[in-house]
Amino acid sequence: MTTAPPHRSSRPTLPRVTELRLSAFATHRAARLPLGPLTLLTGPSGSGKTSALRAYEALARLGGGAELGEAFPEPGACVPERARADAQRRRGFRIGCTADGPEGPVRLEVAVQAEPALRIAGERLTADGTTLLETALRDPGRRTVQAAWHTAGAAPVTRAPLPDDRLGTALLPLRVAGKTPGQRRVLAAAEQMVVALRSVFPCDPRPERMRGPVPAGTGRLLGGCDNLADVLWRTRAECGRRHALLVEAVRAGCAGPVTDLLAEPYDAGRLVRALLDRGDGSRTELRRLGDGELRYTALALVLLTGPGVLEVDAPGEVPAALQTLTVLADELDRALDPAQRGELLRLAARMCERGHIRLMGASSDASWAAGVSGVTVVHLNRD
């Protein structure tokens, strides 16, 4: 029995990754991780929370057109520990994901050879049971893979070589003419996958780097949030509404009264520093805040801004209304007290519900997330 695809009007309008598959990656075997707008990976040390986040980031980089070596700077660490080499001494790993959107669920699978040379060994893009793109490493002596994509014209497929160091799905818009219905279907599925994967912001605020004044720069927040003061200097002037929401969030997560979060020139204008306005004529420099207060403030800023402020590779060819930013946060609750965790999670749930931001975080114990609406908790274990 064949099930008809869902009516187009019932499909999500914003492409989004709904599942991460780690078929053979680091400590993971045949793992399928469901992803919602706000997902928390939880499990003991060694269960693979960090490696799952890295796999997602790598897929996002490949979707943005990065070379394989940029996406996997340490490919040996991605190979399952007990994976045996074949007769040609080759070892590798397999990852993939599902992206839902106007074209329905589109599935991507990628096999990567890590040893003796890093290269894509195979790739498959499918939708509704149809293989839209398939590549295979036919000749190990050539730095190409043989690709075949769906045409549904005079010839059922088109065959051509593609580089073995880039994701074929990301290259299809440059290779497929879009003249036949089959080719247009391939293009639509590939574009949905690429748009869903791109605009990822790996975030790990480092309090020790956020306390002092920083040089004035581009006003784009770095992943470690080192330049928090410089970004506040920009956002406070550009968007009063979002800044008011940030102040409200900081008030809920920091000790003492907070009426504003300021940034001002320092050291004859060469630097910028950030302060809390206490509302009684006194101000507190960020260097006096606790680690939890600083991490909480930085994460709240990330959730309340977007690709224009964060240091991300936003797809410029995609209208802003169709873009979704995915924040990756390992040890999301590190240094946060119970009140800060709860406030941050509620803020994240509100922002993710709007559809233009998604959060994938990790925590060794996510029991504190129980009962919060909109949170998908994925339990991992060492087995």
Helix percentage: 25-40%
Structural class: alpha+beta
Total DSSP helices:
9
Summed over residues and divided by their number, the pLDDT gives a mean of 90
**Strand order, sheet with most strands:** 2-1-4-5-6-7-8-9
List low-confidence stretches.
1-9, 314-319
**SSE ordering:** EEEHHEEEEEEHHEHEHHEEEHEHEE
Radius of gyration: 23 Å
Q: Could you tell me the number of beta strands?
A: 17
Straight-line N-to-C gap: 36 Å
Please describe the biggest sheet, giving its number of strands, its sense, and whether it closes into a barrel.
Answer: 8 strands, antiparallel
**Judging from the principal axes of the Cα atoms, what is the shape?**
elongated
Q: Percent of residues in beta strands?
A: 25-35%
What does this protein structure show overall?
The protein is an alpha+beta fold. It has helices at residues 49-63, 68-71, 168-175, 181-197, 207-210, 228-238, 240-253, 291-304, 338-353; strands at residues 16-25, 28-34, 38-42, 91-100, 106-115, 119-127, 130-136, 144-150, 157-163, 200-202, 214-215, 260-266, 271-277, 283-285, 325-329, 357-363, 375-379. It has an 8-stranded antiparallel beta sheet with strand order 2-1-4-5-6-7-8-9, with helices on one face. The longest helix has 17 residues, at 181-197. The model is unreliable at 1-9 and 314-319 (pLDDT under 50).
